[in-house]
Amino acid sequence: MIQAQMSPTFRDVLHARRVIAAHLPPTPLHHYPQLDALLNATVYVKHENYQPIGAFKVRGGINFMAHLTAEERRRGVVTASTGNHGQSIAYAAQLFGVRAVIVVPEGANPVKVNAMRAYGAEVVFHGADFEASKRHCLTLEQEQGLRFISSGDEPLLIAGVATHTLEILESQPDVEMIFVPVGGGSGCAGACLVAKTLNPQIQVIGVGAAGAPAAFLTWQARNERTAPIATRAAGLATGAPFLMPQAILWEHLDDFVLVEDAEMFQAMRVYLEKAKTLAEPAGAAPLAAALRLRDQVVGKRIALILSGGNASMEELASCLGLG
Predict the structure, then answer these.
(1) What one-character-per-residue DSSP string does 57-87 give?
(2) pLDDT tens figures, 267-311
(3) Contacts (Cβ under 8 Å, ≥6 apart) of 223
(4) With bands split at pLDDT 50, 70 and 90, how would you rate the model's confidence at 5?
(5) Taking the alpha carbons of 161, 167, 170, 172 in that order, is the dihedral positive or negative?
(6) Long-range Cβ pairs for the range 100-106 (8 Å, 24+)
(7) Which of the residues 57, 112, 196, 274 is marked catalytic?
(8) Which listed residue (81, 88, 133, 307) is catalytic?
(9) DSSP state letter for 183
(10) Strand 301-306 to 177-181 pairing
(11) Which of 236, 254, 292, 316 has the greatest CB tally within 10 Å of its CB?
């Protein structure tokens, strides 16, 4: 079992794969000739939108819940989420018979909120954004004795979500670039951990929202930075960094690109048209970044981690130019 505040290792990822394999099959890694033509590259899409909760974070939730002690399972857990992390914890808590309380911002994506409730979680609305919701978790932790789960600074989550990149490279070991969304940073940190262990020549590109640049600014400065949140991409809407994944990004991440909301909505539309698949804005961010960096990807074998497909009706309308 990984100790509470130790960064995960590649060995932890291998262990997480064994844990997760009992509950989840690998997700598809599909190749789309129309995306190849668009980017003048060989493009593979890692379909984390095909997970039971429609997002990659379920990997971390299952790995985390499997390691809880009997006493921690009895107490229950609390966490803050803009959506997908909360679904992950709700799904895994139901799987292991654990009470889960999820604190979400006012106005959270109803698709994701309804899914959390469907998996048996107690959803608490609190605060205008993720940071306010996170602070309220600490109050509930003290009042109810719940086990707080950080959505970023938790080695079991990072090791769990890193298995998506392990699956990519087992299927396509010759991939040269991997584009990964960065919200809290667990998925990107996991991608770095796996890719750089297996082949240090692979470039890992983190992708954030221009309207929520805290993670980017922290990576750039190699020191904690906060920033206002002004993006509609809920999965990327973090106003303060998580330093455990950031430490991994500081060491291993090759580049960090910020994309505008409009670019993400355009990429959602491209996925619908060219790959017949649904991406939420954060899930479409890697494609948006690849389109922006098309001169750098020409002729290369690239993987895009489509991290989630939990788009709201409003996001779909924006992507289609209807709202």
Answers:
(1) THHHHHHHHHT--HHHHHH-EEEE-SSHHHH
(2) 999 999 999 999 999 999 999 999 999 999 999 999 999 999 999
(3) none
(4) low
(5) negative
(6) 100/76, 101/76, 101/77, 101/140, 101/144, 101/146, 102/78, 103/78, 103/79, 103/127, 103/133, 103/134, 103/136, 103/137, 103/140, 104/80, 104/133, 105/129, 105/130, 105/132, 105/133
(7) 57
(8) 307
(9) S
(10) parallel
(11) 236
Single out the residue of 206, 283, 284 nearest to residue 245, CA to CA.
206
Distant-in-sequence, close-in-space partners of 104: CB < 8 Å, separation ≥ 6:
80, 81, 82, 83, 86, 112, 113, 116, 123, 124, 125, 126, 133
* pTM attached to this predicted model: 0.94
SS3 category, 52: coil
Rounded to whole angstroms, the Cα distance separating 137 from 127 reads 11
Q: Could you confirm whether 57 is annotated as catalytic?
A: yes
